[in-house]
Design goal:
With 435 residues, the protein is of the alpha+beta class. It is built from 15 helices and 12 strands.
Length: 435
């Protein structure tokens, strides 16, 4: 190994150890060791299979015993829940007032599994069909830095309708509250159409949390104190602001004050959330000169900040465009870490291993500021063409994963101490002089 690579490997190991120590400061020593070993194994093997993680440890005992030890630690729900809390607290420290908190559901499909606890029918995001598996709540933070951005995982939890009485929305609201408290209400929640729900809007609005939600066209809202369909209201808003999105795409947008009724039933004077509605039209020019149009509606609420209407439109459009990055994160976890290959019978073990996986992911994503160092030392892993720095401006986390995995495979987590047998001369030297 080259000297530069050796230095980089050592720096990564030191950074990894500090990161684990920071997140496990209040855990038992046995749990600390397990979390360090399991996280290292997930990165090294790029796998969520306990047997492969156990193989990566190279212990001097039977592989079955190592696997049983790791599985036993996955049952320790109290310690793992403390780890989840520590992860949220540390991640929330990265949130600023302009940060995005992207919330999106995902799924783990296990169509051939039969003995995994809590399996239920979930909608596969790839083809839209319902299959056996688990729903997942994922929350990712995003900080924009000029034209570039950095992502950091905030939270992930696997949900089953057949295990526990708590609904997925209640779990989601608990996470909202944790993030709001630990970040001092920093950041803007960004969600897609699946979250244009009265309960979600009421939960965020009641805590004065900023949010941006794309709305479906069949919702009713109050526009100029009249109850009407949101799509009809959007048509009445003048789209006087024009934004460019690439060379061939133009967006016309306008914004207006509206009220979202929060009552479940129709009443004369319902409780309302007073927010803004951005009505936008996307116009794309194709190569043959033809144009295609699409309309969409975005709800935006930024309490305690007064922004001009044009800036509100720009913020809503740019933030919603970055929402797509969480889809890349889902793809990254499934492709590079074999998220859907997870093989455990008990639901609490699946939850625990998912937490370990997202801890490994958090470490990888925390290294995005190292990308230029990595490009210098591991050029072939980071770039297709030498000196083409534009490649580092894209979703770079696939390539960072390759580098970290390569470095971790070059080293052992614990160095073995080889006992040496002292010879006759050394035995004589160990005898005290006054004996």
């Amino acid at each position: 190994m080259k000297s530069e690579e050796t230095k980089m490997v050592k720096s990564l190991q030191v950074n990894f150890s500090k990161n684990i120590e920071k997140l496990t400061y209040n855990l038992k020593n046995s749990t600390k060791r397990f979390i360090k070993e399991a996280t290292n194994g997930v990165i090294k093997t790029q796998s969520c299979i306990v047997r492969q993680i156990a193989q990566s440890l190279h212990e001097d005992i039977d592989l079955k015993k190592t696997q049983e030890r790791l599985t036993y630690q996955l049952d320790n729900e109290k310690e793992i829940s403390k780890l989840r809390e520590n992860m949220i607290i540390q991640s929330c420290k990265k949130l600023e007032s302009s940060s995005l908190i992207i919330v999106d559901p995902s799924d783990i499909v296990k169509k051939r599994a039969t003995k995994m606890e809590g399996l239920s029918r979930v909608r596969d995001g790839n083809d839209g069909k319902y299959k056996l598996g688990y729903d997942v709540i994922d929350i990712v933070g995003a900080n924009k830095m000029g034209e570039d951005f950095s992502l950091f995982p905030l939270y992930s939890e696997i949900h089953s309708e057949r295990v526990g009485a708590e609904t997925i929305k209640n779990k989601l609201f608990d996470r909202f509250l944790e993030i709001i408290i630990n970040s001092n209400n920093s950041g803007i929640f960004v969600m897609d159409r699946g979250f244009d729900d009265k309960k979600v809007i009421e939960e965020l609005y009641s805590h004065e949390a900023p949010f941006i939600i794309r709305m479906k066209k069949n919702r009713d809202i109050y526009y100029k104190n009249k109850l009407m369909n949101i799509y009809k209201a959007g048509k009445k808003i003048k789209r006087k602001y024009i934004f460019k999105s690439g060379k061939k795409t133009t967006i016309k947008a306008g914004v207006s004050d509206i009220g979202v009724p929060l009552s479940r039933h129709k009443v004369k004077n319902p409780k309302k959330a007073n927010v803004k509605l951005v009505s936008a039209e996307l116009i794309t020019t194709h190569k043959n000169g033809s144009k295609s149009k699409g309309e969409f509606l975005i709800l935006i609420s930024i309490p305690n900040r007064q922004l001009p209407n044009e800036e509100l439109c720009k913020l809503a459009l740019e933030s919603y465009r970055l929402r797509w990055k969480i889809e890349e994160v889902h793809r990254h976890v499934k492709v590079d870490f074999g998220w859907e290959d997870i093989q455990l019978s008990k639901f609490n073990r699946i939850q625990s291993l998912n937490t370990i996986l997202w801890l490994a992911l958090s470490f990888v994503y925390s290294l995005d500021s190292w990308k230029y160092k990595f490009a210098k030392v591991f050029t072939s892993l980071m770039m297709n063409k030498r000196n083409n720095l534009k490649e580092l401006e894209k979703f770079i986390y696939y390539r960072i994963t390759k580098v970290v995995c390569y470095c971790f495979r070059m080293t052992r987590l614990y160095q073995k101490k080889i006992p040496c047998k002292p010879d006759k001369l050394s035995k004589q030297m160990l005898v005290p002089f006054f004996a």
